[in-house]
Amino acid sequence: MATSSYSSSSSESRESEASVSPVQLPPTPPPTSIAIFKSPRESKSSSSKTSHWSSSEESLPAAAFYGPLDAKNPLLVSCDKEIRELLGFIKKKKALATSEEQKHEFHRRCATTLFNIWTKYAPRLPPDYYNEKLLKVGDSLCQIKEYKLALLQCYRRYLQQFGDFDEHKEDVNQFKTVFFPKGFGDETAELTFHVLSSKNICSYKLVCDNDANLQNKESVSQCLHILSSLRLIMQVALPQEHLCWIIFNGTIYIYTICRKLMLIGLSAKALEYLLWASMCMESSAPLLSLRYLTWRATLYTAVCQCHYDCQTSIHGEAFARRALAKIDELRQLELMSSSKCQEESRRYYREATIKMAVMIFKRGVFESRRKNKAVFRPKIRINLKEAQSMVWPRTVTERLLDELFDCTASRFLAVLEALSDSSRRILQTGPLVTDEVELRDVVSELFMAGKELLILSNVGTNGKLDFPKTFFLEHMIERKNIISVCAAVKFTKLAFTYEEWGLFESLAGQLIQFLQKQDIPHLKRAEKDLILLLAVEPLINIKKNKGLIFPLDSDKEGQSVQVYLKHIARHESCVRSCGYSEDIFNLAAILHFCVCVPNKGVQPDKDIVVDIISFLWQKCKLGIQRINMSRSDFSKYSHKISTSKWIYLLWQISEVIHCYQMENLDIVMVAEITLRLSEILESLGSPRRKFRKSADMSAKKGPEEFPGTPKGIPEVLPILKRAPVEQLFYAYELLDKAIAGMNWNFMLTTLSDGSSTIDHCYAKYSQDMNGSTYTPISANSLMMDLHLELIHTQHRIAVVLLDQFFIILFCLL
């Protein structure tokens, strides 16, 4: 995954880094969901004046008319009461709005109520109290994830007192003139900084709500614009030491957005902003203290990871070495100012140093083994199979691990990072893509080291793997020789990707046995991931290779897991045939179990599910094409449908894609699967329209009563047990979901020229005086054709359903 080194090592540590909470700057109040630090002056009064109000509103008595501006002022009490009631209403009723109409009505009512409150009280409240109330209400709305309401009714309302500013120009002088005409010493300056930052975060949250995966290019552009706006705010605040909380919050916001960009493969765009955040942490004197070292190291590792993602590993290593020097400078300064180094300080330095050492090792372990073209004498290679029976350290890689790291946990993290490649998906299996044999040897040595570290640290007296419940980070800091289960799962997935099949099977078997006893959501997800990888492995490893690395000592764990997988496949599909195709149907059954069977909302890894669905569809498409569908006799057609495993596989794939999040799938594949299954259901549901020979007895008899069903094939598919009208209605629902998914994809996807794929129109080009030609603008005609075919098929089935309805109604009358 294209995130920082540390975040990619374990899910527990990744979550803790994303919500950074170091010791706060005094005397700042507690953090909120929008700002980690708040200005120490935000609660003070402001002398700024708001815009002019209408004469009718000014005729009403102001708050000062009722006495001192304290907690007993009736106007202030009334305003606070209405706002509390609104916030309470939002918290109570938000979860009850489930349908789109209910959500729309809920948001309309909340926006109207808040607008009326501001319109009613704004002219009568003191300007300083009004501005402070805008901020507090906006922050409260952000805490309950009402970002649009906070942005429109609070933060932008606050910014209306300032003039227009062109954010696209990023003019620092104009920015200062518009928002800070009285300078940064004014009491309103910190309030304004807070509003500007919160406005950007609300905008980012709204972008993610509308396009979670940032599929639309416009969404990516908005994220980059938000990053530029945050950079401008930090650039203005950086020279002011008392505004260091703005810098710190800005780095967290930048890291959060850049991490999203890195996950979708846009590390090149995120790099410059992460570099800026790192440099700001170094340039702000208050943020150079030890309490912020952990966060600085996280930013450093994110920059290094961006360089590795962009295939510029030399720059990643160079930046890591520079960061390591900066950390050492801070250590030297602390030693000069203090005679003794406390244990807490050692933990900070150790954590940061390990992160940087891992980033250096990630490139150094390979570069040190590259063949020197100036030397013609070949290097002597060791026999890796023989080396596995030797004592640690056995290879150059293991000796390098001993030199850089002093405990099993940190060494294992270095192995994981060296093997990780953000450009490869888990099911993109194969060895390291290089012509240099020495580099492939390094990969094998890393797997040897990882296996040995896992055995030495986590194998108990009974010969089985066991894992603690503490975080991987704690193990590294405390120099413990133990590895977390999440790190072991990632190592197992890497063994699958690099085709170390023997090691993968033995590790996956023991890990699944351990994970089945756990009840934590992210561990149940890891269990499903490993189950799916074990199921797909026979279809990828056709030659039954074991790989270079020896598996763990054989025991009954792997056999019991295989029995468990066969039980799932038998329960889900009742497929008991032999041959090559058995693995395909077992995989489909296990995928159906992992995705469609409810288990506390836990779903497997998105990339694994998407790749397996694509793999199954390619196999299924070829199988269906081999079936000779006779359209002359309904009975023969129905018999072939009921006795075809490929039709059953098609139905299972369709069930999975409609249970899963469709926005993560290839919409063209979804449309093809839906059309193919709908065609079959339409033929079964309305035989009179499709076949020349369609006797009523044949239609009533049904496919399940035909003799000669081959062994291992279900007697009847679940969908074929339904009545013809139910089959047609099921096909109509599938088409409706596919059309909705296609519409959603059209909304998110844009072409290279920026136009939407749904905007398919024709432009007129005049060639001469006598005639004109019309040329289509859109290049994506395949999706449009599939969209039209889906609509046409749905309309055709709807007509058949209406005919059936009128026939039933006529019979009743």
TrEMBL record:
One of its GO terms (biological process) is cilium assembly. Residues 1-11, 45-54 have a biased composition (Low complexity). It comes from the Eukaryota. InterPro entries: CFAP54. Residues 1-54 are annotated as: Disordered. Transmembrane segments: none annotated. This is Cilia- and flagella-associated protein 54.
